[in-house]
Amino acid sequence: HEAGFLDPIRRRGRKRDSTLDPVEKAALQRQKRMIKNRESAARSRERKQAYTSELESLVAKLGEENAQLLRHQEECNKKRLKQLGESLIPVTEQRKPELRKPPRMLRRTCSMEW
């Protein structure tokens, strides 16, 4: 530890604490609290830094995955558009000869008198 008063080898009993006056005792306790608080704050900063790094890594990974999915979607859209174009061209070519022929019409015949 940072201070010698926390070392268990140097402290053999409570005689030293009993010889301190209340002001020194309060100062010693305040110093112990400050040290513990400083250590706790350092641990908290380390946890926060680790969490932030983890989130940044996740953002980068998800950004790359999103870009990959967008590229895949664009490829699928292009393929689908090409397929639609190929399927529409034969249909229009098949209809062209039909347009040249005279349309077939039903003719009325008189098969029965009224």
Automatic annotation (TrEMBL):
GO terms for biological process: abscisic acid-activated signaling pathway; positive regulation of DNA-templated transcription. Keywords: Abscisic acid signaling pathway, DNA-binding, Nucleus, Transcription, Transcription regulation. Residues 1-49 are annotated as: Disordered. It is found in: Nucleus. Coiled coil: none annotated. Gene3D superfamilies: 1.20.5.170. It holds the Pfam family bZIP_1. Residues 1-24, 36-49 have a biased composition (Basic and acidic residues). This is Transcription factor. It comes from Lycoris longituba.
